[in-house]
Structures are given as structure tokens and as C-alpha cells.
Fold these 3 entries.
Entry 1:
Amino acid sequence: MRASELSKKISNRLLHDIVVGTLEGGQHISAQQVADRYGVSRTPVREALISLEEKDVLIRLENRGYFVADKLPPAIKENLDSVDPSELDEYQLLANDWLTNEIPEEVTEQFLKQKYGWTKAKVGELLIRASREGWAERKEGYGWRFLPVAKTPEAFDEIYRFRMAIEPAAMLEPSFELDHKVLEEQRRIQQGMLDMDMDAVNGEALLESGALFHEELIKLSGNPFFLMALQRVNRMRRLMEYRAEVNHQRLIEQCTEHLEILTLLESGNTVDASYRMRQHLSGALKRKSPLAWSWATDTSTPRKTTP
């Protein structure tokens, strides 16, 4: 994907998040924040930000950066690209083929070039991203090896048990400090999820908003290693979860529990919030785990996910 095509995709995803309210008017947007969110470099992100500024979706303030416009142009929804933001790109295609055993555990770059018709540069870019996100590694000498870290049911369970260990503990860190602006923003997003028409929102956006909730809360620990660990496992579990169908009842339960955790934090009941977070993750594991192995080896077209 050329830089201009990638920046257009990033622009579409940002525009979608703004239109559905995940990003609200006046909110600051930095190139690094977007690059981390979508797993891309800052160069195409900067191109996307400039494009949205030209469409009056973003406002650039000198020495302060980009902000979402308080009022969007009336016809902005018509500017959304016809491609669904959750449609498979090359990276998701590679991940999907690994999940469904369409490619072997060990491959060469030449093998991937021939199978998919990609350029050498594209293959290298995708493998490096897969390595960064924890599901591929370069072999000693020659070739690449795909890892089963987020492919097996056991790995899926281990990811959730790991989260159950670190997320409640992060709230009990001596450096944990409430930020009411963060809590207010997450309450707005979670309540908005409950109020919106789910059929109008793609599954990838739902997954991202759920991951964002947990990452924003773990940031409050003041310990960057908690956040780094959570971001990595969130990227790994995405390989499995984007294939699951959107389950509205589970989504309602999830958002409701998120709001309960926020209420406890807002009232200063950090210990209770920590315990509720563990319950929340334990319940999510029980609800999602049966799905993990029922469709992980399904070779049908990937489906949309619940966060």
C-alpha cells in the first residue's frame, strides 16, 4: 500500500471515529497517538491529519497541534470512503490466513511474495509489524516463524488471565492517580456506545473503543510498563477477536460494567473498582472463551467483532 493510500485509509478511520462520536469536538489529536492506535508510522498519519484539516474536520492551532472541529461540515458523512474501515487490508489478510492455517508456521519472504503478489517492501513491512505486535519472529539465518501466541484457545485464555493479573493491580499502585477528565471522557464514550445504533458502527471501531477504555484506565497507574504490556496483548488478541460476530447483549453488558467501574473510581473507591475490574475481565473470559475455539479455525470470511 503506497503512503498516499495508507494515509487515505487512516483519514477514513479517523473520520469514522469522529462522525460516530468516539472522538469528540475539541479533542486534541497527535500524530504519535494516531500512529500508536493504528500501528503505523507517523508519516502517513501526518498526511491524513493534513487531509482532514483541509476538509475542516480538524483544526490546526500553532504550537498546539490538531483538534477535532466543534462543528463538522454538514455533508461530511458523504466524504466517508465507500470502503468499510473494518474491511480486510493486507495485514489483516495475512493474520487471517495464519489464524485459519492457510499458511505454514515457517515461511520465507519469497513464499509470501508469490502467494499474495506483494512486493518485497510490502512483505517486509507486514512481517515487521507482525513481529512488533508479537505473533511473528525472524528465524536465525533465514526465513520467518509465525507464533501461536494469539491463535490457540489456550493463548486466548492466557491473555485474559494475564489481564486479570495486571489491570486490577494497576489500580492499587502507589502512583495510581485519578484524572477526572479521563474518567469523564470514557463515561461519554461508553454511554454513547449504549445509546448508538449498533448496526451503524463497524466491529473494529467497537473493539477499539473497548481497548481504549482499559488502556486509559491503566495509564492512571503512573507505571508505563503496565500500559506497554496491555497494549501488546490487546494487539495480539485483536487477531482472534476481529473475526467474531458483534453480540449486542455482550456489548451492553460490557459497557454497563465499564460504567460501574467508572462510578467507583469517581467516588474514590479504588479498591472496589479494582475488584470490579477483575470480575469484569473474568466475566468477559467466560463469555468470549467458548467462541474463541469455535471459530478460530473457521475458514469462512472474517466477521465483525465485539470489543
Note: The CA atoms of residues 130 and 136 lie 5 Å apart.
Entry 2:
Amino acid sequence: MKLWSISLDLLALACGHGAFAAPRRIHVFVALADNASQGIAPVPAKIGNGDDAEENLYWGNSEGFKSIFGRSKSWKLEKAEANPTPEILDRRSYRHADKDCILIAEAWRGKNIHQCLESFFAGLRDRRSDLTAFIGHNGLMDSPVAVSVLSPGAKSTDAIILCCVSGSYFKPHLAALQARPVLTTEQLMYPGSFLLRDALEVWLRSGSRPEIRMAAARAYAANQKISVKAAAGVFSKLE
């Protein structure tokens, strides 16, 4: 009885210190670029087909999510699921090599960008993940998306939104959902997934929002061949 009591005390102590805490969760919604259905500046047809994830600018292309995270040494692919729903062409699950974190990413058909945004906001509302990200065209420029007002007292959650001028367009929605933006944008921009990759490394070590912004700025500067100062202007100052 005494040994059993000691074991229970040790278990309680370990739980109290988070030894059995669940891994952090990240959910990434990628709306595939689609010349036919989105108000985007047209891109070459091969990478602008919203029904073809493998060649798409935001997924299978060299700087799309699947390619960037597939080459990453920090993220290990655990599961890939083709066409899990009519709207989603690819769903992938990754685990971080060093941090206790699981990432789920989905490639949504370009014509279903409205439903993709609705699911993104629903994920934030229901606190399904510790961080929820959106990558693609700013669909709020084309048509509005209604969101529910969150009840007070919900646990904190973070958001990254990589699309043109996301800071102003998404701000009222994030406020209604009591979600904390950690990376949003102020200008027209190219949402390559190298931005998310570098931002997440800072977020995972509990870096500040200015540190996350500068990590994205350095990645954007290298990709666009511009100064880091100019690149920093693309991203919102979230102090």
C-alpha cells in the first residue's frame, strides 16, 4: 500500500508539471490558387489550376506547402490522405523532429476557397488547435465570410494568415473569435510556404510576435531578393 501511494503521488506530481501534456497542434488551411474562380492576378495555367494540387502554386509547386515541408528536416511526414473530401484534394500530417507538435495541412480546391475560409474560422472558434493558419488568396476581397462571436473565457489560440493585406481584412474576424494574430500582412504579397516554415520555428520556441515577423521578413527578403527592411514592411507590426 505504501509503495502504491508513493507511485500515485509521483504520477500526480508529474501530471502537475505537464509531463503528460498533449502535443501542440497546428492546422494549416491552403486554398489552392485558381485563375478561374478567384480574383487573383493570373498565374501560368499549370500552377493556377485549383483542381490540381500536385502542380499548384500554393501546394505542389517548388515553394508550395507540400514541397517546402517535404524538404524540411524539422518536419516528418506521418500520413498522407488523397481526396479525403470532395473539397479537399490532399491532407497531410507531420510531426516536428525536436518539439512535441503535430501539424495537419489541407489542400482545398480553389473554387471552394469560401468553404476553406469558413473551416479556418470554425477551427479558431472551436479551439481545435493551438495555432491555425491560412495560406492562399485573400478570399475576403471577393466575398464576405460570417463568423460567430465567441463566448468569453475560451482558451487562447493563435493565427497566422498569409495572403494579401490580411491584417485589415481579417482583424475584425479574429477579434470576434478572440484569436491572437501572430503573423499577418499589410501589403499585396506572395504567400510562399517558406514563410510559414520559418515563422513556426520561432513560434514553437515561444518567440515574440516581433521575432516571428522578422523571421518571415528574412525569408521573404531572400526569396524576393529585396532588403529585409523592405520585406518587414509586408508584415503587420504585432507588438
Note: Residues 1-18 have pLDDT under 50 and may be disordered.
Entry 3:
Amino acid sequence: MRIKITMLLLGLVLAGHTSFAQELFGQAEYTLADHWDLGDNENDDKDLFVIRTYKPVYVLVAKVSNNVNRLPHSGNPERNIDESIPLNKTEQMFQLSLKTKIFNDVFGDKVGGDIWAAYTQASFWQVFNTDLSRPFRETNYEPEAMFILPVHYRLFGLDGVSVGLGFNHQSNGRANPLSRSWNRIVAQVALEGKNTSVVFKPWLRLPEPDEEDDNPGIENYLGRSELLLTWGKGIHAVNCTARHSLRFGENNRGSIRFAYSIKIIDNLRFRAQVFSGYGESMIDYNHRQTVVGFGLSLVEW
């Protein structure tokens, strides 16, 4: 049912927003400035409440974990379960991600600065698990709002494109004891070179009362920062996302995701990715594993 609803919503979006459909299915290679409407085309800068792509949109037909999290646990004792869940090591996953600009030129035409709203959903489906009637193991919901300001400078041979600041909520929408969530203030710095882009995102978790905290110390696993490196040329695209706790000793943790895609036809691409570390999904925030998957994508970084 959830897949039908999600696909119906995506279909309505594509039918009702021509510019989004063109971006999704007919988009040529574009820059970070294009991604955030920071170019010289004045018409691009004035389009509000138009649905656009944000993060990669893809389906992994199969992904395999070397260490399945069958007994999710949390630093909050009220968020633990006592009985192991018979999960398969192989499952499917899909991600949808959209954004829309809601305010133009906060600091006027010369300085600029736009406000965006975005939504990303990642779902993990135990489609091969007939013993559990093929359930969705986990769905992560990530709404956010952000302010993006264009900048112009050179650093290490790269061009500065933008800086930003925003609010991010991420949760799995589940009831206790399997509820996981956190809120963050996220900054970002984006630079770009020929065929290459670099986006650095440090963040600060907003505190919660101990008794309401679903995942104490999550920032020591999912990290306090993220570095996104992308490279693309011709039919090939590569991206690497690294997160780290910015701590040493026993809290020296993080993760890395490496993805490669190759064009099949138009914007349909074959995608393969490897994830290693903590927090592939919210329920796995303090669980370490390595996951290999492959599938198809419509949007890449």
C-alpha cells in the first residue's frame, strides 16, 4: 500500500509540474549553481513552489548486509526489544527526494539568498522475506528547510558556489520501542570544479530530555558532519559520502557510502553502491555493517 501511495504521489508530481519532469527525465549535466538556481538566468531565480529534484532518486533491486541488525537497541532502555527479529540479509531499497524554493532573494537582487524546503524518504523492504510476509523493515522520513546564499571565491582550485544553513528532522515514524529520531541545525559549504563538486555539512544536534531521547549519543555514530564528493563525466558518475563523529577514542565512528552509476538511456542509469559503518538507516544508528547493492537510478548528485 505504501509503495502504491508513493508512486501515485510521484506520478501526480510529474504530471502536474512540467519543469520537474523535464529536469528528472531530460536533464543534461548541470552544476551546483543550476541545482540551487544560482545562475545568471533571471527567469530561473523567480520560480517559486516548483517541485525539483534534490538528492539521488533510485531503487536498489537487491542489497546484501554482512551483519543484519536483528535486535535493534538504543542507549535509552525504553527503546530496546527483547526478541530477535528474523530479518533476511538481502532486501530492496528505494529513495525519493524533492525540493522546492519558497522565497527568493532574502538580501535583495544583488546579494540574493533563497529559502528552500525539501523532503527525502528512504524505504527498506524485506521483499524476499516470505516468513514475515515481505514487510517494510524501515522507512526514514527527512523533511528540512534551508537558506542558500551564493558566494564567489577560489579555494584549492575549486570555485565557491554557496553556503547555507538549515533545520533538519529525521525519523522512522515508528512507535516505541522502535522509534528513532533527531533534529539538527545543518550548515553547508559547496565548491565546484570541472566535473567535480565538494559539499561539506557540519551540524549540531538539538538536545532532547533524556526520557524522550530515542537514540542517546546518535551523533557519536551517525556523526557530526558529512563530506560529499562527486565526479561525473560522460556516461559515468561517482559519488562518495563520508560521515564522522569528529571525536577520537571510543567515539571515533562514522560511515562511508560509495556509489557508481552509468547511463543506460536518457536519465535511466544503472547504480551500484557500497555502504560501510554505522547508521545505514535510523534503526541501525548504532549498528555497524557493510552493505552492497545494485539497481537503477533516475537522479544522481
Note: The radius of gyration is 19 Å.
